[in-house]
Design a protein that fits this description.
Alpha-Beta Plaits, two-stranded antiparallel sheet, two-stranded antiparallel ribbon, globular, alpha+beta, 107 residues
Amino acid sequence: MTHVVLESCIRCRYTDCVDVCPVDCFHEGPNMLVIDPDECIDCAVCIPECPVDAIVVEEEVPASQSEMTALNAELAAIWPRITKSKGGLDDADAWKEVADKRKHLQR
């Protein structure tokens, strides 16, 4: 079992989750974080740290976002690992409540 970062992270990229991860399984892209499913140990300490509720257990990924599981694995293989938190994107607060953000994903 692993955890998955959902589309609500897109254009926010808060990194509060990074500091609590004991195995450094987060990877950083231009405007989102993803979790490496091969590194995640399912400890769940990252879930309450996310200010946009973007992290869920794989089995709880909404059907409308089912492709996010594979996307996390794909992008974790090419994006650099992030091990220290830093501020969210400059306009992250403006994007917190926006739905349907997949079209804004930057690879």
